[in-house]
Design brief:
single chain, mainly alpha, ABC transporter ATP-binding protein, transmembrane
Length: about 120
């Protein structure tokens, strides 16, 4: 059975991480230059620039996560989920208590009646 062709990401999707890193780098260079001009201490400027780079990068990534997907992304997510559901039907997974008949049925495999609650 052959796999369907994997769609290639658009150029915008490929460059999105570079936009975040670039924006964080611009903010870091700006702050580093300001601190260097004010204090004339390169170590303090480097520490400030590194800190701002990390903070801005994390903030941009968190803002990107909160964006609501458009119709094309929603369709792509649904397509990926349906493919994962088909793959999980044929792939054996871990046995659960309901399928084996050997478990206690309470979902706690590491507890025995004598150790429960202690």
């Amino acid at each position: 059975m052959s796999q369907p062709p994997v769609p290639q990401p658009s150029r915008r999707d490929v460059l999105r991480p570079l936009e975040m890193v670039g924006g964080a780098a611009i903010a870091a260079v700006f702050l580093g230059l300001v601190v260097l001009m004010v204090t004339r201490e390169p170590v303090l400027a480097a520490i400030g620039a590194g800190s701002v780079f990390i903070i801005v990068l994390v903030a941009l990534a968190m803002f990107a996560i909160t964006l609501k997907p458009d119709e094309a992304e929603t369709a792509d997510i649904a397509e990926q989920n349906s493919g994962a559901a088909l793959a999980s039907d044929s792939t054996p997974g871990p046995l659960n208590d309901a399928g084996t008949g050997t478990g206690t049925g309470n979902g706690t495999d590491d507890e025995t009646p004598s150790t429960r609650g202690h």
